[in-house]
């Protein structure tokens, strides 16, 4: 143990930036593997991952050519719906065969719209081709009487879930297209009403769980992704109660920010093996297998050690000077109580803590070591979901985003609240100024 | 190998390929020929708003390759209803599809729709009890594969509300799930819902844990779980949830927590969650010094990964102490 210096940086694996750029370049310039077919209807968010990742790696100005950049932006606008909002993909657009009767099968889509606008912003587009008034009018129609947002509107019916992922995207659309102006605004002589903010806040407050986390709906199990989306949406509409805030307002959410904070910090965990059983109780130091502690070692799935339990199950595991193991090992985040760490939750949790203005209450260094030492893919670049997994777009993007928030200087600074580079978000005030809305 | 182009059943359809609008589309996928063809035929029949038996085959084919397609599900439901199709056969098909696509949300939404329709349309005819029992059984089958599947737990809650299954049978189900894995937080959450959901969501009886008898039963249940697995956060959270909801004093749990962690025996801590609870008990008792000591134990020995958080909590002690004084 003594040979390990207390200087943490010596132990921290580094980001293999060149490999990540290569991974994302491949995603941009070649067809995505056939396995993405199940995500065909989610292409706009795949597009956002690709463009934003290259931006975070500072490669967006070099990897695509000028012409390619123009083509990409045109593709996004090609997905814009004639009545406002964007589609998630061109697959529902019937082109010349479009008519009033089949229009119901070709709706604009809330996440599709947020990811389209975010990607345009990252590409430094001035958003002048966005049908802004139509989009904001459509956004209003996407809100249900209970305050929640749907995914699409079909035959006058709001379809899709009612969870905070959609609420976050709706708040993001509102933020990008009307800044911090609340109430009705005038766009080219057309008066556009605001969404119902109080009702939306009510939805989030209702979905707070007995244990402090936030779920998609009342009484469902709290989950870090929904918690992020809830907090993020509230921050975007300036209705967030923060733990360090002097007064917790009833017109804001969450009801009890300190409890949400508590739930969030508990998400950090040293459990990494998804196949390890969790049914064995407290092991003492002597019988805890130390197989997971070796530096840089990828844990093969199914490797449960001698006792069929994860090595770090015990709270007194750290008794007896195993702090050094901890430094080497790292600790990621899980999405729900008693689950193992997963790359994407390093973002959902890390970003939630950022939004709450308490980013350092988790162990950011351990989070970086988890990402860089365990789920970063050494050959292909990108990040997998679990240690040893092949990379995919979703985890590769959120892994980079999480690293930035956890203090890595190898990735551009990220705006946790919108999940894009700060540089991209800082373009908004200029755009808002041109629209004469509050920044 | 064209599947539809060579099939006389589809000879009248002119396939409608997707228009990407120009060169260099983003996130383009290496589709199989099979998928490209199926999509082109689907787009053609959707554009024509055809509702026919062959549409059911086509949507089934497409959903199998791309279950996240959001309007194809609506189209399929419309077609099923227009044709007065056998909705039980639809549920059978959904069973297979759900097992094949564990993480898909649309499948469960569609299932809600079908079950609702079965009960609505065939009201009086349909054996509702048989239906929900079969649904509950299917849910348990799904849990054999993944006992924490979020969509499936959400669907289970929907079944409870839809068919009023708030009774002891559902409680026994949570016990069965927890007997398999006492750390399954989804099962704990479901128990909380079964015990408290009716009072809050239906407003037609029951007080949940605010009923003294229910509270005693639930406290005992959680304490027994802690005894078996002291370092399991779920039952600790459950206990604290009861305390918070009923407004009972945290002090009631002090003796219990001290069985697992106490300042008198700082080397014998059996649960970091017991320490966390103890810190809050001391705060309630306005014993800032003891609370600080407990938080120090967490920060330095028993939960150093959250060191900064425990220090933050310690920082709040002064604030709360000042407010109390």
Explain this structure:
The complex is a heterodimer of chains A (439) and B (325). By secondary structure, chain A is mainly α. Chain A is built from 16 helices and 8 strands. Among the domains of chain A are: 44-93 and 107-195 and 422-439, Glycosyltransferase (Alpha/alpha barrel), CATH 1.50.10; 204-255, no CATH class. Helix content of chain A is 39%, strand content 5%. In chain A, the strands form 4 sheets. A two-stranded antiparallel sheet of chain A has the order 1-2. In chain A, strands 3-4 form a two-stranded antiparallel sheet. In chain A, strand 7 and strand 8 form a beta hairpin. In chain A, helix 2 (17-29) runs antiparallel to helix 3 and helix 3 (43-56) packs parallel to helix 14 (393-405). The longest helix of chain A has 15 residues, at 164-178. Chain B is an all-alpha fold and 325 residues long. Helix content of chain B is 66%, strand content 0%. Chain B has 15 helices and no strands. At the A-B interface, helix 3 and helix 4 of A face helix 1, helix 3, helix 7, helix 9 and helix 11 of B.
Kindly list the characteristics that best describe this protein.
heterodimer, A: 439 residues, mainly alpha, two-stranded antiparallel sheet, 16 helices, 8 strands, globular, disordered N terminus, B: 325 residues, 66% helix, elongated, disordered C terminus, EC 2.5.1.58 (chain B), protein farnesyltransferase activity (chain B), Protein farnesyltransferase/geranylgeranyltransferase type-1 subunit alpha (chain B), magnesium (chain B)
**CATH third-tier fold name of the domain at 44-93 and 107-195 and 422-439 in chain A:** Glycosyltransferase
Query: Roughly what is the average pLDDT of chain B, rounded to an integer?
Result: 94
- CA-based gyration radius of chain B: 27 Å
Give the N-terminus to C-terminus distance of chain A in angstroms.
53 Å
Nearest-integer average pLDDT of chain A: 87
**CA radius of gyration of chain A:** 22 Å
How many separate helices of chain A? 16
Q: What is the count of DSSP helices of chain B, taking H or I runs of 4+ residues? A: 15
Structural class of chain B: mainly alpha
Q: Which spans of chain A of ≥5 residues are poorly predicted at pLDDT below 50?
A: 1-6, 277-328
CATH class of the domain at 44-93 and 107-195 and 422-439 in chain A: Mainly Alpha
- Structural shape of chain A: globular
What's the count of strands of chain A? 8
Q: Biggest β-sheet of chain A: count, sense, barrel?
A: 2 strands, antiparallel
Overall outline of chain B: elongated
The strands making up the biggest β-sheet of chain A line up spatially as 1-2
As a percent range, the share of helical residues of chain A equals 25-40%
Order of helices and strands of chain B: HHHHHHHHHHHHHHH
Percent strand of chain B equals under 5%
How are helices and strands ordered from N to C of chain A? HHHHHHEEHEEHHHEHEHHHEEHH
What is the correct CATH architecture of the domain at 44-93 and 107-195 and 422-439 in chain A? Alpha/alpha barrel
